[in-house]
Every structure is written in structure tokens, then in C-alpha cells.
Fold this sequence. Notes:
Strand content of chain A: 15-25%
Strand order of the largest sheet of chain B: 8-9-12-11-10-13
Oligomer: heterodimer
Structural class of chain A: alpha+beta
Distance between the termini of chain A: 61 Å
Shape of chain A: elongated
Number of helices of chain B: 11
Low-confidence stretches of chain B: 1-57
Structural class of chain B: alpha+beta
Mean pLDDT of chain A: 85
Mean pLDDT of chain B: 83
Radius of gyration of chain B: 35 Å
Helix content of chain A: 40-55%
Helix content of chain B: 25-40%
Largest sheet of chain A: 6 strands, mixed
Largest interface: A-B, 36 and 32 residues
Number of helices of chain A: 28
Shape of chain B: elongated
Strand order of the largest sheet of chain A: 22-26-21-25-23-24
Distance between the termini of chain B: 87 Å
Number of strands of chain A: 29
Number of strands of chain B: 20
Amino acid sequence: MSDNFIARTTCVPAAIALAIGLLFSGSAAWADEKVEKSELPKLTEMQLPTADELLRADDSNGKAFDWIVLKAPLEADRTVLVVSPLEIRPDTLKTMAETYLKVEATKPKNEEERNERTTRLKNLKQLIVKLPGNAVAEYALPISTIDHIILFEELMLRRADELLKEGDIRKAYELLLRVEKEFPAWELSKPRFENLLLVESGLRARDGDIYAALALLDELANRNIDNPELRPRFGEIVAPMIETAVTDKDYNKARYLISRIERVFPGHETAKAAEARMESMADSLLNDAKQKTSQREFAAAADLAWQAEAIWPSSGNSRAVFAQTVARHQVLHVAIDDSGPSEIVFPSPRESDERRRELVEVPLFEPTSADELTYFRSSYFEIWDPTDLGREVVFTLRETRPTWQSQPLLTANQIADALGRRMDPTSPLFNSRLASFVREVSVRSPSEMKIRFSRVPLSIESLLRFPIIAGAGIADVGNSDVTATPGQTADVTAADGTGITLLSTRFTLVEADNTGSSYLRKRPEPDGLDPSKYHIAEIRERNFTDRNELLKSVIRGEIDYLPNLLPWEVDAFNAAPAFQVRQYALPITHVITFNPLSERIVNAQMRRALSFALDREAILKSIILRDQSMRYGRPTSAPWNLKSYATNPLEKPPEFNLRLAYALRYAAERQLQLAELTKLETVAKEKAKETGDKFDSVEFRKNTNVDYIKLPRLRMVVDPDPTAMEAAKRMVEYWKKILFEIDLIPGDQPGAPLQDSDWDLCYRRIRMEEPLLELWPLLTNDSSFDMNRLKLFPDWMRQELVNLDYSASFVDAQDRLFTIHRHMSAEAFIIPLWEVDEFAVWKKSTLGIPENPMSPYQNVERWIVRP
Amino acid sequence: MRKLIADFLHFAALGLIVMASIPAYAQEAAPTRDTAPAPASAEATSSPAETPVKAAAMKVPPKVVIPFAREAYRVVVEIGFDGTATQLPALRRSLVDQIRKGLDRMYGAAWNAQVEESEWLIPGGQERLNRLTAEALLLRYPESSAQKVVLIGIAESHGTYQISCREFDTRVQEMSPVLTEQTDEEQNVANVATRLVRDSFRPVLMFVKPTVVGGELEFLLQAGELTVPDPTAAFIRDGDVLRTFLRQMERRNPDKLKLLQRLDLCYVRVTGFNTELRADIESAEDTPVLVKDVTRDTSAVYYDSGHVRGVLISHGPVPYGGAGRSVQQFALRQRPAATKSRVKLVLQTRIDRPLICYRVDKVSKLRHTDSNDAPGERVLSDRNGEIEIEVDPKNPTFWLYVYSGSSLLARVPYAPGLLPKDTIKLPDDGLRLGVEGELYLFRDALVDTVAQKAVLMSLAKKASAEGRLEDVEKFIVQLDELPGQKEFMSRLNTIKTPATEKADLQRNAGVKRKIEKLCLAMEESLTTFYSSDNKIREAQELEQLRKSAERKAAATPGLVPPP
């Protein structure tokens, strides 16, 4: 590059003369120059200053300089005069020449103006310069002797060019920025910037940071789309990436890259080639899908169609084939972030268990909606008519079913057999509550049965909420399928190796691992329907360990359904047009339950101290909802929905009173100490009796120290939900303030569920649909209704729980529940925390979802996933 | 509870039974069981049949009265058959013969048995025996025809014989539980049947008198003085339990039953039988009597084999063990037929209402007044109100203590295994238990107040020590705001008044009394806590704190503003 500066000149004597002239007029100015005074350096000999020199010279000390290249007969002889920065810049000579022409064109009106014009013209024919190091002496240099001027900024640009060649982007960019700052949008800077972007993109691409390289090219395109190097550069960078993406079957990436090129250069040859290739691949897969459809392999066909769509979105006729294929075997992609079906230590039933159970087991009655009460429907019974004042109910079974229904039709025999199993004390399915209600089951015909109750249940539907499980013999009988086509007869699901089978099932688990599970419709929908009449055939649950990854996946459109939104995600999804958000009919209630068999829960004062020590509102706002206005949650006083008929309106959530909590904790500890004291006193009394000594009870109690008796350390197992764990940690902090020692056990740890001896408290998230029947299992952490698990409770509380089953009317039941609610709150038999509104989000392409779902998969057989 | 006692008195009045003794302990805790007196209908039906018998008796010599202890049992043994193999008459005859001989070898003269193939027990399987009722059998076998009826069912299926046996006592009109065994060998069938007969048979005892010392009862054992050849068939052995029955006979016709009463939850534990009567042992009380020219023979040893002594254990006062005209006080020796009994606790007023989740302590001791040698076992009644009591060979009877809250609801003896299923009726304690619960909450509210008071006092003391007068005043105000005696008394009344009113409505004075007692105890605690002495002491303490804070505040130099 420096060669450009070297211009040969033949006018050496003139230059010498000029230099001497200059020296005379300002001898001190060159005092520190090492060049010969009689000879100026030739342009060809001038070394381009380094970046550091330039940057140092450009600082505030004003050490910058310009090069004035003087004319010479030969270009190579041109010499350079280094001067302090010129006043007129940039384009000094051009500006002066333009000014000269302007002044020359003026027409002076008088003598004074004429003189002035003459003086100005004369001045414009010479350039006033100062030599570096002498800011006082000025020298006039005739314009005619100047070949051109190389400004300091231009030197910077030239050095930047050099640096870019060397690949030193950083320094080059710094120099360019200095120039840009001095002369914004200078003509000479623009190509340098473009070059910088090109060079940097090349470097980034070489380092594998392709997206950064593309971003730089995008920037270059914004600056100058006509840059000749831009179009080929795009192709060079993106083509191998597309190739790799296609090879890796990352078609999203490939399509994205194609779109990146197309956005900048529509019709770019690289994009066109890739597009054609991918379209061809997609068409080929669609053809395969058509073939599979004709072979009635709908699942495989749908998979192929989706693969084709993933490669290249279909259009025209292909679109019709694709839509038809995927409608025949619809797949619902569900995102979950729980611990999956693997065994964890959490000892209580979880909401996620309910979700899985809902898919594979169909109870005789299922909840459909809820307000104060919960309403039920049955997939199996057409009519159930109570007679004899409710002591007898005649059930008429459905004999046909709609095409969308996937569970098999059951016969009265099968249901009666299942009931029998649940009433047989020797059966593992024995349900003592059911057995205590049902006196007799009789089958009148395959479609009619009668249950006679020994006492009238308040809610038959709640009582009969269990799936039909029968022995193999019964399962085989009457397994006729009225609407199924030959070969599609719904068979029974082997529950386990015990010889019993699950009859009432909806979907079947076909695959499960840590990454997710897949469920297939138990009974496929018949052929020949209009494509719009088909429903979901398969559910694929995908497990995410990271919530952010889950959300990204949902936003990318890979997920059709997210069953549980966190409270702070609701608004964002509500605002997104691609999604539909629905609120569950019942909120989730967070409670702390006590292990009824734990010996560490010593008394009521201890439980109440734990309850009073919690600032529910603060935890709810900061951790659970992350919302100070608490729009989607509220502190609660009951383990069930606050709007439920069971909620006693006079009961308020427990107050936060740390002082009272501390005092109660002290009282609890004191009770233990007094018990110990009594024990010691009894022993001492007996000893005194043996020895014949006099025993003074008052004195003994006064002198005996039982301070070594302390409240035991407690262990709280926490629901495997990250938010619950966070809240539990905060609760422990509150409890520490009143000197409780509590160890947290994360419930999501893999392993066998904790035994009763391993935990004392349990943080649970529950959704109670029928408090009348579900309270007992909650309090005892057991569904077998074992009386021994009521040991924690005093007799009166046990009887209140037992008597719930003997409610004579709804009003009676409500009254009893009000009393229990009051007593539970007062005695802290459980610690209610808060209830949180639950939301689920679907892609708008999912149809048929309930307005206020009762459960994650309510009516899932009737959902439709549109492509 | 009063109703229970009235029921007993009713029965007692019927039989003009003199209550030998009514222990005072049982006044409060006396449950009842199904004690429906069996009507003498069977007797009535048997009367026409008796008429010709009586007519015949007119012609025969006067009836010889055999002493009870020497009276052999009049037993009818009927054998029913079921199954293909038993259709052979020869086999049936052979089996009947073998059983007849076996029983003869076993009981000898103690039994006057008539063993034959049944003409009506067809088919004679276990199910058939299970379905039999006492009423039906009484019609077929009146008391005059036999004292004991033993029914044996032999059912054959695929070469396996199932032998079942059941005994029916015509005098107490009750059947024993069905015992069943299986055998694959035909030649073993008669042996098994004989053994089952032995195990089903329930010897009969008659109360004679209470013992002079020890508070025991003395019984005569029917055929007790007759020798039973097979020692395994001995009528009485150690630890046997007797079940008690009262037979009130018509005064004018002492052979005719007027009323039969089974005394449930009333047992006699055998403490002595076959007592040796020896002359070579002299007790301290004995005074030697010498007769001239007569030498005492001290070598003779007699066995008082017809007499049995035992301790009466019952849930409360029972009309048994005393003297009574026209009343036969019977007892059946019954041994466990099952390894356990399921006892159902039900509400006395509503037997369809099981008492679920009630605490029951099972204590092994003879009398309830005895001290507990071993800690009792606590069980909870299940969802059907049932508890399971296993047979303990060392302790044939237990005491069951049924609790409802802090109150003992019942204390009953129980001999497990005699009946596989049993029912105990208990009084309704729901109202009192509800009040107990409310008082529990009341007490906790009081504890809250005491705790808060303690905390506030402590804070006030600290503030006073630091001279923070404003804080002291604030804490005193908070102390004043705590609920006081008036609030608590009012709350106590809201618990007591509706409950006592409800008890009045139910005409349950016992429960009302208990409720009032509970509330009174709580009221006394309140009065003690809020006594005027305490109040004055508290006020003085607060005043001192206030003054101390004032002094400290005055002594503390004010903050000097920075220069």
C-alpha cells in the first residue's frame, strides 16, 4: 500500500529550495527532525505509521499530523512534508479550490471589496501550514506545489486496511471508529467499514460462529447491498451449513438458513438449490405416507407426513395429502416437567400420577365440572335411578358408544365382579368404605344391574369413582365390541402379573423412559370417516428437566399442550395469539400434612406453632405467584377449594403471629418436659416407697431438671415441584426463627417411597374434588381407610371424620364439614397454606378442549389436533 | 345407661330372681347384647306331642328322678349324606355303625345316644348345616325328645370327604358353630366325625350355690359322676369357660319352660373340678374328733367329680348365681370353635349403626377388679365397627374396655372363639364426645391467651428494663385486649347450653350430667386462672413495670444534638 505513496519526481531542486525557504521562516520548527534539512523525505520512503503510533498521536495532546505530498516531475520523486493538522479538512485542496471558484465568481462592488477579493484569492492559492512542535510559526505553501494531501485520518484508514489484511479486526475497528468520530459518514470510511464486516464475517465463519458471520453480512447488506462480495459470501457461508443441517436432519435449521439468504437476496442460487432438494425429499416422504395409508398403517403414515412437513412445508396437492394423513392419526404433543413415571421418594399421591392414571384408567364416574359442588358423568352408565329412598340404585349400561370413545363397552357382569373384588377383604383392591356402604349387587341382565346399599350414600358418583378391574375369566366374557370393526375388538389390559386385568381403559402406555411417554388410543377410530371427524389417536408426553427449554419448545410450536402453567407465565401466554389458555375448574391447594404415625408430632401446640409461624401471604407473593397483587392465588384455610360447599365461611386463613408461635412452641416443649417429670416422679416415688423414705412431690418437681427434653427434630418431605421446594425452604426459615429444627427432604429424589418412619410432615399439592370422601385419605396419607392411621387425632375428631359417611343429607354433610373445617383450623390437623389457580395452554390448532378443565386430560378422546 | 339397667331389671322381674349381688362398679359401664328372651313357643308346639306321652305315663310306674350329676345325656345323632360315593346304602350303613360304635367307646354310659342316618338332612353338607336355625330344629326335636341333637354331614366330592358337625341343645335352644374337617380316606371318615362330635358337644351344668368363700359359684355337671371312657372327651378341664342361661319354668308345671334367657357377655371361668376329698390333710380350722374304738382311716381319697367351681364374670349386674324359685340357672361348657372372634360394636339405639374407630383395650385378667399383670392391648374398631379378638389358650376370657374420648364407655368380659361373630351394643356417647371436642378447642384458645400473655409480659418487662415507656404502655394495651374471663365464660356457655338442651331433648340425663361435669371442670379452671388474686397481682406487676420504665426513662440522658 505504501507503494502508492511513492511517486517519482524530477523536481528535486525546487523542493530543496522550498525546504530552505521554510527553514528560514521557522528555523526552530525542524529542530528535532532527524531528516536532512535540505531534503524532504520522498513519499516512497515514508513509512506508514503503526496503529499504536496513530492512536497515540490522535490523543488529546494534539500530536496528530498530516502529510502534504509535494509535486515532482516524477511520481517517485514526490516528497512529503509532515505538518500539523490542517485547518481545512477533509478534502482540503478540493474545498479550497471550490472556495476559490466561489470567490472568483463574486463581483465586488467597490474598491474595498475588490481588494478583499484579491487578497482572498491570493490566500486561496497558498496553504497555511504549521510544522509539528511549533504551534506559532505559520508557513504558506503554494497550492500549485502540492500534489495531494494525506490527512491523518486517511493514514488511519490506510493502516486499517493493513490491519484488516492481517486480520487484526479489533485495532482496525478502533481506527475506523476514530475516523468515524472525526468525519462521520466520510466517503473514504465507508468501503473500509464494509471491508471490515466482510473480513470479520469471514473470520467468524472460520471459527464456526456462523450466525455471527451471517449477522455481520446482514449488517453489510444493510449498509451496501451492492457490495460485490456480499452475494457470493452469503452463499459461501450458508451453503455448507444447509448441507450439514440436512445431513443431520435438522430441517428447521436448514429452512431457517434458506430464509436468511432469501431475505437478503431473493432468488439466491444457494437457497434455490437447497429449497428444491428439500422439497423433493418432502415429496418423497409424502408419497411413502400415502402408501402407508393405503396399507392402513396410519401411525407410520402420519409420522412420515410429519417428517415431510418438517423438511419442507407442503402446499397445493401435497398439503391436502398431508392434512388427510395426519388427521387420520392425530398426535398430541404434551410438555411435562415432572419427574416422570419413575419411582421417587415422595410418599403421597401426586398430581402427575393422577394425570397418567387419567389416561389409562377410566373410572365408572368422572368429574365433568365444578362450582360449589363437583358434577360427574359416566362413560358406562346410561341411567342410574335411585329407588327405595336411595337405598337401591338400578344402573342401566350403555349398549352402544360414539366412534370417538376408546374404552370398551362393559357388561353388568364385569362391573358386578369388579365391585365384588373391591368389597372382598382378602382382595388387594378391597375398599372398606365401599364395602361398608354396599349390601348387595345383583345383575339383572348384561346391561342392567342393581346395587342395594346398607346405608344411603350421599354421592353415589363419588363412591363409584374407580376403574373396572376384573379377573381374566370375567374379562374375557362379554368383551363384545358393538361398533368395532373385525380385528379391532378392544382387548383388556393386563394390569400386572397378578392375573387381574384392567377393563375400563382409555389409552395404553406403549413407551416410557426418562425423556417421555407415549400413549395410544385403546380402540382406534373406525375407517371411512370424514377426516374432520377423527380425534387424537396418540399422546406423546415429552419430559423436560429445564423449564426454560420447555417454554422454548412450546414457543417454537413443537408442543401442542402444556398442562400446567406457572402463575407468572399465564399473562404471557394469554397475550400470545398462537395459544389458548384455560383455567382449571379447581385450583391447586398447597397444604402441609402430618404423618399420622409419626411419634415426633408430639402435640397440638406443636402443630399450631408450626402453623402460626408462617407468613403465608409473603411466601405466596414472592415465591409461588411472583406477583404482589396475588391475582392467581390466595392464602387458604382449608385443604379444599375455598369456593367449595365444604368451606366454612367463618374460617379465615391462619394468621401470621410469630410471638404466639414461639409461645406455643415453648408450651409444646414444656408439655414434653412435664411428662418426663411425671415419669421421673413415679419412679422416685416407688423407690422411696421401697426404701421407706418420705417423698415430697413438690420438692421433687422443684429440684428436678428436665431441660434436656427438647422438641424433636422434624423431617418434611416436599412435593417434587421446584416452586414448592423453594417455598418450603422459606418456611423452614420462618420455623427456624422460633427454634424449630426441620430437615427438608426433596420429594423428587429417586428411590422407594419413604416409609412412615422416615418423615413427619409432608408438603403436598392437592386438588380435592369431593371433600366428603377425599378428606380422610388426605389426613391419613392412605387410601385403605386403615383406622390405625387415625391415631394422631383425638377421639372426637375421629368420630367427626367417621360420621361424615353417615351424613343423612347434603345439609347435614355440609354442617359436618363446616365443623371439621373449624376444628381442623383450630387444632392444625393440617396446615393449609394457599390455593393457586391453575392454567393450561394449548396451541390454537387444538380443538375440542374443555372451557374449564377438571383435569389435564378431560375428554381427551374428543380433542382434535389440526396441522 | 339407665335403660340398660331397666332392661335387666325387667328380665329379673320376670323370673322373680333374687339378685345375689349387684356390684356397684357396673352402674356406669354396662353394655347390652342381643338378649332377646327366647319364647317358649317350642314348648308350646311340643305340648300336643306331649299329651299322648303324658297319657302313656299315667300307665307306667312313677318317674324315677336321677340326680343331675348321674343323668346321662339323651342324645340324638343324625347323619346326613351328600355326594355320589355316599349314595351307596352299604357305605352309609357302615359309616353310621362306625360312628355309633365310636361314640359309644368315647362316652360310654355318659351318653344315651341314638345314632342313625337322617331322613331329613339331605343333602347333608356344610352349607346345609350352616343354614339350619334353632327354631326349625326345636320344632323337629322338642326338649322332651332329646337333650342334645348332634347333626353330622358327610359330603363326598371327587374322593374327598368333608365332614361337618353341629350340636343343638334343646334346653337352651341354641346351636353350636359348625365344625368341618376334610379327609381323603374313606376309612377315616367315621373317626373324623366322632372327633367333631366330641368337639361340638357342650356339656351342661346347673348352678347349685355360691361358695362360702372366694365369691365363686358351684355347679353340678350333668353326667359328671359317670365315667367317660375316652379321657380326651372329658367334660371339664382347666381353663374352660361356661356360658350362662336362665330357664324360668312355669310355677305350676315345673317341667314346662316359660322363658329362656341367654346371658350374653356373662361367663363363668372354671376354677375347680374333680376336687380331691382327702382325709389325711387337716386344715387349721379342723378340730379333730375322736370316736372311741374307731380308728380313722386316712388313706381314702374321693373325687368330687360331679361338682365344678367357677368365677362369674360379667359386664354388670346379672341375675345369675342367686337363689330363685322356678329358675334353672344353666351353663354350657363351650370351647373355642374358631381361632378368633369378630365382635361388632353397635349403637344400642340403632343396631345398624356400627361404632367405628372406637378405642378398645383388651386386658387379660380374671376379674375386672384384679390388677393388670400385663399391659393391655389397644385395638381400634374397623370401618364395620368390628374388632378381632384372637383366642389365647392361657387366657380364655378377656376384659374389653371401650373408650370414647376421656370416658370409659363400657367394660365387658369376652371369651373369644366361642362364637365366630358377636355383637356388643353400646350407648350413644356422641353428644358428650362433641362437647369434649369443643372443650379441647376451648382449652387451646385458653392456652393461646396464656401464651400471648406470657410473651407480652416478657416484652413489657424487657421494655421496662430498657426504659422504653411507650413500648411498655403499648404492651399493656395489648395485654388488655386479650380475651378475658368474661369472653371465655360466654364461650363456655355457648358450648354447654346447646349440648345440655340437646341431651334434654334426647331425655338422656346421664349424658347431660357428664356434659355439665365436663363444663364445670373447665369453669373451675377458668375461675382459678382469672381469680381476683391473680388479677391484682398482675395489675401490680404492670404498675411496677410502668413506674420502673418511667424512672429509667428519666434517668437516661436525652440525645445530644451533634454540634
